[in-house]
Structure formats: C-alpha cells, structure tokens
Design a protein that fits this description.
heterodimer, A: about 500 residues, four-stranded mixed beta sheet, globular, LutB/LldF (chain A), iron (chain A)
C-alpha cells in the first residue's frame, strides 16, 4: 500500500473494458436467457473436462505452473529493461517499434500505418488487445475495413455482436445460430448450407480465402514477445493466422507490454502450459514466430506497437500485478460457476470471467469498474486451473478493498453496517447483547413481516420473506432464524462460566 | 489435549447444535474442550467484502483469545481458511501481529483435520442409519485441501448410506455477500446444487459449513423438498441414530405472533 502511494500516478486504460451497467444487472438478463444458458453450459463443460484430461497426462504440471508463475513474476520485476531489450532486438531485425500509452494512441498509430500503405482494408489475426482498444471501430471511422479471420471472431463480426469468451468469442452461439448468421451475412452461401460444423467451417474458409489472397495489410496481436531476440509468437488452431502473418506485404502487431518473456528458451514452459489450458490440446496446430523482416520471405514492412493502456498502473500494485501474468488461456472462464451462468457479455469487457474481473478494473481503475471484483463467489476454482498460478480470489478481495478504501469519504449504508458490526464484534459484552437482541427481536419482527414465523409448508425455524435489502436472500431462499438458545448460553449451562 | 473451540459467530447464534456436537465428539474421545467466552467473529465477511480496516481488530481479537491453546478447532472450513489463508495477509505491515499470526495459524484446525491428522481417529462410534450426501464446500476443498477427510469420518458411521453428490466440488452459489450482491447468479448456481442433491435421493445433506448450508437448505426448504441439511459434526455426534430436533427458533413475543 505505502509503495503504491509513493509511485507517480500512472494513467489508466480505455476501450472495451467496463460494463455500461453494473454486473448484477447485466447478469440478471443473461441468467434469464435460456438459449444462452444451454449454449454456455454445454461448451464450458466440454472444454473443462477435456482440459482436465490433458492436464492429467503431464506428470510435472505443478512444476510447470510454478515455472510459468516465476517467469512472469521476473518479467514484472524487470519489465522496463526487458522492453528496451526487445525494442533493440526487434529494430535490429528490421521491425519498426512504436510505443502507445493508451487505446487512442495505439489506434492512431495503426490507422496511420495502414493509410501509409494506401490500402483501405486489413485482415486480422485473432487478438484480444485489438478488441480491447476497439481498433476495428477506429479503422472503420478512418474508412478502413477490418476483416476478422479467426472463425469465432468472424461469426461475432458478421453478427455485429460482442465477444463472450477470450479463446472462443462466439461460444454463446450454437451451430444453428451460426448457420443463420452465415446465411444472412455471407454473400456466397445458399440454402444448401447446413449447421454441420465441417460445412460451416468450409463456408468460412471460402469466404476468407479471397481476403487472404488480395489484402496487403495484416494486423495481429502476439501471445509472447521474446526480449532477447525481438521475436513475436502467435499460437492458433486454424491456420488463418498463419495466412495473415505470411501473405500480406505489411504486418502490424499490437502487443501489450506484459507479453514479454526474457529468452527464447522460456517459450518451452509456456508452449506446454498454454495449449493444454486453453484448447485442451497437447500442442496447438499452428505456432508462428517471426523476427523483424526476412528479405523475400513474408511481410517486408513489419511494425510492432507496444501498448500500455493501464498496464503500468497495474504493475504498480504489488498484489494486483499478478493479473499481468495472464497468458489468455481461458481455463478460468471454463471452470467458473459464475461465467457458466452468465456468459461473457455480462462482464461488459473484452476480458470476461474471473481473470477479466481482475484485469478490467485494474486497467480502467477500480472506480470506473466497481462491480466486477464482486462478480465472484470466491470459490477458488479459477486459481486451481490457472497455468501461471494467478491467485484470482486474492486479487478480487484486494480490488474490493481498493474500491472500499477509495470511497472512504462518501457515505454508504454498507460501510455503516460493516462498521457497526465490527464495533459489536470487537467487544464481548456488545456481542452477547447483540446475540440476545437478535434472538428476542427476530420473533416479533418475523411475526410482523411474514405473518408466520415459518412459511406455510416450510421447515421450522425459517422465514420466507424479508424486507430490502435482505429480500435479495429470500428471493429464492428461506432464511434461517436465530436459535432459541445460543451456543454460549448452552455452554454456560452445561460447562459453567467460561474462562 | 487442551483444545480451544472457536464455534464461529454464525454457529453461536444460528446453529448451536453444531458446536454442541463438536464438544460431544471431543469429550467422548477424552479431550478437554474449552470455550473462551471472549471470542466473537473471525472477520471473514469484512475482509472478503473489502473492509480490511474493520476486519483487523477482529484478527487481533482472535489471536488474543486463542494463542494460548495447543490446538484450536472450528466447525467451519471457511472460518478456518480465513485464519490460515487471509490472516497473514491482513496482518502485513504489523510485524508483531504477523509473528503472532504465523505462530498461531498452523494450530487452527477444521474439525476433520483435528480428528484425522492431529488426533488420528476416523472411527467415532456414531450411528446414523440414513441416506446422506456430502457437499464439499469451496474453502475447505480448495483453501484447506480437506480432501476426503470428512467423508472418511462419515463412512465409518454405523448404518449410514453415504451417496456421492454429483458435481460435489462445484460452488453452491453462497459466497458470503455474493448471495445478496448477485442474487440472480447465486440462485442459478443454487438451482444446480439443489438438482444434484435431489438426484441422490438423500434424506440429509451434510457439509462442513453452516453458512453454505443455510443457502442450500434455504433453497431446499423453499422448494419443499423435505431434504434436511446438517453440519457433518452433528452426524458424527449421533449415537442413537437420530439428529437432535431441528434447532427451535427463538420464541416470538406473544403480542406479535399471530395465531394460526
């Protein structure tokens, strides 16, 4: 805490990172969408089970996780030096490195680079960071059309929808819905198009092939950026990324500054952790690496935009910075009981799920994203599957605290209640008086509220209805009433006065 | 062994039968249980809701009250996890308190840890001829790594028909203030937990945390399923095959209680 206050104020990020309404309101809508619930439940359970299976195969999985965590921690401690080393190596290899403080700056750089080529369209490799900065919208405003080439991103783009998952942004659609989108939005489909996944993939392949062959500029992100060599790395399953990374003349990669790994050898750890955690594959089908420009082979004009957008501010928080270790695998989304019921759009950020609930508020600042740290029951399933051991529950609680501390001066009913309760709990006499009051008061209160202490047909000693704010409990649950005799009164009666 | 009982505030007020069961079990095994009356609450709700400053006096209080004991036992996975996992973090910045927390926390046990690991018993002479299913509450499962300790104890209960709960390791949706801050998601999670419980045809649902059970049994009760929820300690304490009657609520003042 003290360390944080001593650091200069660092700018927060902007972009698709904060919900327009609080999470509970958006979640209420999502929970009521029966088709969404079925789609997400099926998809998350399938991939969850597959991941568990392929992770079980690896004898030294826990050691790998620890290695991944330690590497990322080292990167966090040495980020400035590593970034400069990366810039030097990439520049020496023929790439041009740009630095962007925030979304607006990154969008401006990319737009100008595309304009300079004279092209009015780009093909895109699936990338979280360009969705974070809403690059497609910025390009569109400049008259440049961006074509998503990842199948799931393409589906979302064709439907003008929102991403709901880090790895599979179209996870909330089922194949029938995808068929309808293709039929509606792809000019070269007809009624022969079925909802068979192979048929849908073939339709997308034909649709995209023309773009790959004709488009002169590609935009990508990167999974890793190797400081020693200036190499960028992209992992994917479809091969469409490989097309974009090799065929165009100009390649522009937007890379969050936390993607750095120190050496090429460090990839050994992450190339084992990432595929098994994300797609539940032993190895992903396509791993592309490129280092600047190679004459006569691939894009001859290579740009790298290193993006901050709130990452330095996150790094300044010694607890919260764990979130920067994320390798975007989505394992935490797939096991999260909250995500399973709401899907990703409820989070209102391109980063949904448990990891999103700790990344988004840190990039934007907690005050702009108050509800996401509370979008978790703190069950801990996310921490167990995280391949780099990010203690997500710890950071969630830490961010709740940051939000509470930041609002100290504003009056709040919750704070008053918490303070009062802590005051009561800090003294034996006050505590015992409160126990007694709770027991004697709930009887009449219950009588007044419910007409009956026990709801008709309900179990003894429960209440069916409570007033606001406790009505949030009784909306679906009967509420227990205090016992006739507290434990401590029983103890005094049976064992005498406690010491 | 001189064992200090941290009954937890929820049990003190709402579920005294669980504390009584712990006392019964440990005294039956020949141990001395003490209940320091100065104990109140571990501060979990404050800390997990972001109120660190409010939680800190409760951390100090817990350490003051319990540091003299050889072992401290609590019938709650999440309160023990609070002490062992969160207290060191909350005490950061106060070297003296940190040292006292580091010294005490490893001796604070959830009931099944005390029985299985410290006292080395899994057979308690309990009799409970009923169909029971067991929900592994999250903090016990993932923060304390209780593993199958509670089920090992339950399996040795005479007459018990212990059936596996499908997806037992999935959160029930309670999550402390989560249950009221996100009631829709919490309820959606509860619905699946209730479905799994009903799928087992169990008469009784057992778990290591009465707070999670208040949530699940609140749903089971609302739907009039007839399934009873109980802390597993109460099953381990049963020697005549029955549970004590469901804890009676405090009597209502006569003037305010309508007659049926």
């Amino acid at each position: 805490m003290t360390e944080r206050r001593m650091l200069p104020l660092l700018p927060h990020g902007s972009g698709h990172l904060a919900p327009p309404q609080a999470f509970p309101r958006r979640a209420k809508v999502a929970v009521g969408d029966t088709q969404l619930r079925a789609n997400i439940r099926r998809a998350t359970h399938t991939i969850r089970d597959k991941r568990a299976h392929v992770v079980d195969e690896v004898d030294d999985w826990e050691e790998l996780r620890e290695a991944g965590r330690a590497l990322k921690e080292r990167v966090a401690r040495h980020l400035p030096e590593l970034l400069e080393r990366f810039e030097q190596a990439a520049t020496a290899a023929g790439a041009t490195v740009h630095w962007a403080r925030d979304a607006a700056e990154a969008n401006r750089i990319v737009t100008e680079l595309v304009r300079a080529t004279g092209s009015d369209e780009v093909v895109k490799v699936k990338s979280m960071v360009t969705q974070e900065i809403e690059l497609n919208d910025a390009l569109e405003r400049a008259g440049i059309t961006a074509y998503e080439t990842d199948l799931a991103e393409l589906i979302v783009q064709l439907d003008r929808g929102e991403q709901s998952h880090i790895l599979v942004p179209a996870i909330h659609y089922n194949r029938t819905e995808i068929r309808e989108i293709f039929r509606r939005e792809m000019p070269d489909t007809d009624d022969a198009l079925t909802s068979d996944p192979a048929v849908l993939a073939e339709a997308a392949r034909r649709h995209l092939r023309r773009k790959f062959l004709s488009t002169k500029v590609a935009v990508s992100g990167a999974n890793f950026a190797v400081a020693d060599t200036g190499t960028l790395v992209v992992l994917e399953s479809e091969g469409n990324g490989r097309m974009c990374l090799t065929l165009p003349e100009t390649l522009i990669s937007v890379v969050g500054i936390e993607k750095i790994v120190p050496t090429f050898a460090d990839l050994e750890v992450f190339l084992q952790l990432l595929p098994r955690s994300s797609t539940a594959e032993r190895m992903n089908p396509y791993t592309s690496t490129w280092t600047g420009v190679r004459e006569g082979d691939g894009p001859q004009d290579v740009h790298i935009v290193l993006l901050d957008n709130g990452r330095s501010a996150t790094l300044a928080d010694t607890v919260g910075r764990q979130a920067l270790a994320c390798i975007r695998c989505s394992a935490c989304l797939n096991v999260c009981p909250v995500y399973e019921r709401t899907g990703g759009i409820a989070y209102g950020s391109v980063y949904p799920g448990p990891i999103g609930a700790i990344i988004s508020p840190q990039l934007t600042g907690v005050e702009r994203n108050k509800s996401l740290p509370y979008a978790s029951s703190l069950c801990g399933a996310c921490y167990d599957v995280c391949p780099v051991k990010i203690n997500i529950p710890e950071v969630l609680v830490h961010l709740r605290q940051t939000g509470v501390d930041g609002a100290r001066e504003r009056p709040s009913a919750e704070r008053t209640a918490m303070r009062t309760l802590a005051w009561v709990m800090s003294d034996q006499r006050r505590y015992e008086n409160a126990l007694r009051a709770a027991r004697t008061a709930t009887g009449p209160i219950a009588g007044l509220l419910a007409g009956k202490r026990t709801p008709p047909g309900g179990p003894a000693g429960t209440l069916g209805h409570l007033p606001w704010p406790l009505s949030a409990w009784t909306v679906s649950r009967d509420a227990p009433l205090p016992a006739r005799q507290s434990f401590r009164d029983w103890w005094r009666k049976t064992h005498g006065e406690a010491r | 062994m001189r064992i200090g009982l941290f009954v937890t505030c929820v049990n003190d007020l709402m579920y005294p039968g669980t504390g009584q069961a712990v006392v019964t079990i440990l005294e039956r095994l020949g141990h001395t249980v003490e209940f320091p009356a100065a104990q109140t609450c571990c501060g979990q709700m404050h800390a997990n809701s972001g109120y660190r400053a409010e939680a800190l006096p409760l951390v100090r209080r817990f350490v003051d009250v319990f540091e003299g004991y050889e072992a401290v036992v609590a019938p709650s996975g999440s309160c023990v996890a609070m002490v062992r996992d969160s207290y060191p973090r909350l005490a950061e910045g106060d070297a003296a308190l940190s040292a006292r927390v580091a010294e005490l926390a490893p001796r604070v046990y959830e009931l099944s840890e005390l029985l299985v690991d410290v006292l080395g018993v899994t057979e308690l002479g309990a009799v409970f001829p009923h169909r029971v299913t067991y929900h592994t509450t999250c903090h016990g499962l993932r923060m304390l790594r209780l593993g199958d300790r509670p089920e090992r104890l339950l399996r040795n209960v005479s007459g018990i028909d212990l059936v596996e709960l499908p997806a037992a390791d999935e959160c029930c949706g309670f999550g402390g203030t989560f249950a009221v801050k996100n009631p829709d998601v919490s309820t959606a999670m509860l619905a699946d937990k209730v479905r799994h419980v009903l799928d087992t045809d169990a008469e009784v649902l057992a778990a290591a945390d009465n707070s999670c059970l208040a949530h699940i049994s609140g749903g089971l009760g609302r739907l009039r399923t007839g399934v009873r929820s109980v802390h597993y300690a109460e099953i381990l304490a049963a020697t005549d095959g029955t549970l004590p009657p469901r804890t009676e609520p405090a009597p209502a003042a006569p003037t305010a209680t309508p007659t049926d």
